Every structure is written in structure tokens, then in C-alpha cells.
Amino acid sequence: MKSARQVAFEALLKVQKDGAYSNLAVDSLLKDNPELDDRDKAFVCNVVYGTLDRLILIDYNLSLYLNQPVRKLKPELHTILRMGTYQLLFMDKVPSRAAVNESVNLAKVNKSSFAASLVNAVLRRVSDNGLRLPEGGENDIDFLAVKYSCPEWLLSLWVDAYGFENAVSLAQKALEPPPIVVRANTLKTTADELIWKLAEEGVISEKTNAADDALILSNTGSVDELEAYKNGLFHAQDIASQLCCKALDPQENETVFDLCSAPGGKAFTIAEKMNNTGCVRAFDVYQSRVELIKHGAERLGLTNVYSYLSDASVFNENYGLADRILCDVPCSGLGIIRRKPEIRFKKLSDIDNLPDLQYRILCNAIRYLKDGGRLVYSTCTLNPKENSELCDRFLNEHPDFSAIKVLPEIPRFSDNEENYLTLMPHIHSTDGFFIAAFCKDGGTK
């Protein structure tokens, strides 16, 4: 039987060595180790996500007590030191002695026995000296990058795009645990009924005015183990994504395309808003992800969702035309760092080519749109090059399209934002998100 620390170590190592997504690595390892109880599972999640959240700050503190750069440490040893440091600095309920000793034990069984004494010495110094920050102040990007474990390039991007105060607030918010938000499946229940169903399983839930039929959950454990989930009474979806579907405004008996759909949450919300009528065609470029859409629709009892293997940047005349199209393109994900903390460690060069792909998908998408139809372009990132600048270019190069002011009832973060909507975690209590809507030939849909 593996310990919780061993499972957390393996998840973090997968992220560091293989570039795995943290949520997928954690979910996979927890399923492979069913003997772990709820307390152990919570410990694994805390250590994995907490360590990734604070990685730059952790490495800075480690660097104070090492004779070599942290980047030269072997991945196994580096991961053990990071885990131990996180426990010492941020997990008050873990005794310092336990954090140090268990880290030494991990080293002995994970290709790092040669460095067991090093692990012991370094972590004891971390424990003795507590959290350390570099010299500098709150107006110093270098200092803020360490304090909030946010790369300098990302802080600078946000400062340039949204101003210094918003940039700092975004970095702060990225360190907070994300809310668990679900949408009631209105074909089977109501939000009020779902509250009672969840309460029977020990889950606390409350309604929010931010989106119709949305609930914020707490005390959940694994959501997909709940009977209400298995019975298709809800699907998980942040407020921002629910607002994106509201901006599309699908109507009963229409044909709607969701071009980059997997895992299918927006397609499901759209289908429910259409009262299971009409047709929602959900596309994805990977077969495994197409299967996720299919299985999700089956669990929810949605018979108007059809999933297809398709490249959204390539036109296929066999699909016909749509009344409305959701173009939620692949993006850098800078608005969901609190959900996938490893995103913060991308390099700027990793996202430089994304606007070209996004623009190709958008330009291909309009070929499917009926005259007078509505298209919503969205991302879960906070980067003007992928958002407003791309949409401005689209309008300049496509005079037969006009922008529609989306969700005018929602406050804008800036007076400069007119038709588009950028959702900010610290302002709107949602994921970071961008939504724009376009209408073909001046239609009103």
C-alpha cells in the first residue's frame, strides 16, 4: 500500500518530468490507489496543488540552502525537497518533524537515497528559518514574482494589459482554491431540488445570482462519486463557462455547433437550454475526447447532442450550416491557473503561435454560420493577443460581421471594453475568461 506522500510524489513527478496535467495525474493515481481514505486523498490534493501553486517561492527558499542551482537537481530529489518545503511553510497541521522525516524516507525509496542526508539538512534549515522573501518591495516585479509564484513574463503581460493593480490581484487570486461550481440539469431537476438531493449525500450547496441554475458546492469529496452526479442531475461548470453559453443564447429547435467542445460542458448547458430539442453538434480533434462528450451526454440524458471527430480549423461541407456557433478555442489557459497551476510555468514562447491557430479556427467557423446567425468566440485566458486584439482583427477583415455587446448587465473591468467581456477572478468571482459575439450580415440573433 502506498502512502499519501508517495502518491503525491508520483503525481508531482509526472507533472515535472512528463509535462502531465496536474488534475489528470492526481485523478489517475487516486483511482489506482483506492485504499487511500478521504483524509489521505485530501492530503494528496493539498500537497500536489499547493506545491505547484507556490513553486517559484519554494525554489527560492530552497536555493538559500543549496550549493548548486535548484534546476540542476535530479527530478526525484527536486520533487521531494519541494514537497517537504511546502509542508513546512504552508501546512500548519503537519508537524515539522514529520515533514522532514517523511521526506527523508521518500528519498530512500525513490532513487535519492544518496541524498537522504542532504534532504534532512536542507529541510531542517527551512523549518528553522521559516518563509523567506527576496529583497525588494510590492512595486518590484522580481519580488512579486517570487511572493506570488508568478513568472515575471506573465506579471509583465498582465501589467501591460490590465494595469498594475489588476495584475497583482490576478496573481493573488491564482493562489486561492477554485470554487466547485455545477449546473443543475434542468431536464431532470431544478437548482432548489438539487440542493436537497446533495444535502442527502452530505454536500453543502448554495445558489448564486451570477448564473441561472448554478450551485456552489462545498464538503463534496469526489464529485463524480456522488449519486446525484451518477444519476445525471448536474455537471461541473464554472460560472464563466455558463455565462458564455448565456451569451450564445441558444433557442429551442435550432442547430448549434460547438467546434472545440471536449469535455463537453458547454455543449451540455446549451442542450439543456434548448430543452433537449434541435441539434447540438459537438466537435473535437481527439477521439478520446469525443468519447468524453458522448458519455457525458448519455449520463445527463441529452439526446440532442451529437459528437464528431473533427479539426475545427478545417472546413467540412458535410456538416451543413448552424444557427449559432460556439468557438471556444484552444488557448494558453492563463485565466484558470488556480485550477491547473502548472500553466503558470509555461514560457511566453509556448503561447506565441496560439493566436494564429485561433484565428484560423474562427475564420473557418464562420463558413458554417447561417446568414443572421450568431457566433460566440471565447477563451479561458487573460491575454489580449488571444482575445480582444484577435477579435478586432477579425472585424477589420470581415466587414460582413458586426460585434454584439455581450451580457451588458455584467460590469466591465475597464471603460475601454465596449462590446467584449473579460471576466476577472478578483472582480467577477469567476475563472478568467473572454467572450465576444458576432452576427453575420447585421442579423439580430
Strand content: 5-15%
Helix content: 40-55%
What kind of oligomer do you see? single chain
Q: Tell me the number of strands.
A: 12
Question: Would you identify the regions where 5 or more consecutive residues have pLDDT less than 50?
Answer: none
Structural class, by secondary structure, is alpha/beta
Shape: globular
Q: What integer is the average pLDDT?
A: 95
Descriptive report:
The protein has 445 residues and is α/β, with parallel strands linked by helices. The strands form two sheets. Strands 5, 6, 7, 8, 9, 10, 11 and 12 form an eight-stranded mixed sheet that branches. Strands 2-3-1-4 form a four-stranded antiparallel sheet, sandwiched between helices. It is 45% helix and 15% strand. The N and C termini lie far apart (58 Å). The longest helix is centred in the N-terminal third of the chain and has 16 residues, at 38-53. It contains 19 helices and twelve strands. The chain has helices spanning 4-18, 22-32, 38-53, 55-63, 75-90, 96-109, 116-129, 141-147, 152-162, 164-173, 191-199, 227-230, 239-248, 265-273, 287-300, 348-351, 354-365, 388-397, 425-428; strands spanning 180-184, 204-207, 214-218, 234-236, 255-258, 279-284, 305-309, 322-328, 369-379, 401-404, 421-423, 433-440. The mean pLDDT is 95.
